[in-house]
Amino acid sequence: MDMASDTGRKQFWKRNTSKVPGSIQHVYGAQHPPLDPLLHGNMAKTAPKAPTTPVKSKKITTFQEFENNTSDAWDPGDDDDDELLTIATENLNTEVVMETANRVIQNHSKLQEKHKLKEEEKPIQFPELSLFINVDSKMIKSASESQLPSSTDSGTRKASFQRQQSVPHQSVIPADQYTCGTSVLTEREVFRMDKFKQLLAGPNTDLDELRKLSWSGIPNQVRSITWKLLSGYLPANVERREGTLQRKQKEYFAFIEQYYDSRNDDANQSTYRQILIDIPRMSPESLILQPTVKEIFERILFIWAIRHPASGYVQGINDLVTPFFVVFIGDYIGAEEVENFDVSSLPEEVLRNIEADSYWCMSKLLDGIQDNYTFAQPGIQRKVKALEELVSRIDEQVHRHLHQYEVEYLQFAFRWMNNLLMREVPLRCTIRLWDTYQSEPEGFSHFHLYVCAAFLVRWRKEILEERDFQSLLILLQNLPTMHWGNEDISVLLAEAYRLKFVFADAPNHYKK
To answer: Which SMART domains does the entry mention (predicted)?
Structure first.
């Protein structure tokens, strides 16, 4: 390859500043501590270089083609480890933490080796959930229309669905379709489920204990109620939950009545138009493209934007609705996969509950990272800078390699921060990741930095094999995670926790 073409390629970002991912309007993220030395542990694993973007119909040969195919990410205009749980809840010295976290990672590595031959002999598949236990409440389905349900007629048009406050009445699946590797609960998983049920059954849920228990993953059966409690949406007191849910639902739909008609006003048209553009780009497509789901997401995002004028709607916020929506709808669909479920078949009262809950929980999440929506996105800038410094101390070779080929961290880490890695890992992994984020102090703002650092170093072998700017960018924006599952997330979190512990005394200006 001649010098002229190489120089031209390296100048691509400099010549096309409007195309740089970091120039995308608003961004959210958070600030993080600087960093100190050592470690990259055993995070380097080989993985098949399979493309993770399902919409691609042909092989991408240039970075410009790749950028065009993924422009929605920066469009400027249009199981569980008890040892690790112990670390998270006790004040241990660095040596003990490093030793224990390494042991967690090594245990996972041994398990992967043990099953390596089996994985080579058959295609990787995610577990089918065929076993489930029937409880006394059966699923009620009806053919509801996709328009906004009316609070006055919903009772006459559809059978009313009883609101679930604690462990919901549903077809209880004994395996978590997002986090378990087998279709039958192990003895340990049964024990953990019992501990969750005991915590949730009391008159006042001990939130500190619930966080400790949730750090290593939440069983699907109790994830919905646990997320609502950990996010601060529901009170710990059981007797107050019914009233809180009714009040917040009423409040949300009062916002709909007050503001939603203004979406076509001149002042709000650009916001609403951007929401309409962004929603079809989300995943899973089979769920998001259902008319009922699209309308629910449009209302949630528009109302949030109207009620937060200092920032307004930001590309990327749309992705944050999905995990809440999928988890909350799981209360009502039993073992059926949400991607294949006809959401319009649910009663209107159920849809109203899910919509209101998703709005309020998303709002709680965004409250913790609100400072990143201000003009010029200073929070994102600091967060990416902190990631760069952290990686330079964790794995200097990877850092130097990126610098050698003029790859800027903002060019790939912008999306990692903007979408909380949701575009980088499957939805099932995002949901498992959020179990821990909601258990960690400042999980979405502060702990996410260490997860991103561990995530980057995880691909060090693949990164070091690439020898030019274009190939590195394509790799970093298209990492082969489509077959990731609970074990991969557990290893990632173990390494991220270790990094957090080592660099816990970082200067405060990175945490602002």
So the answer is: TBC
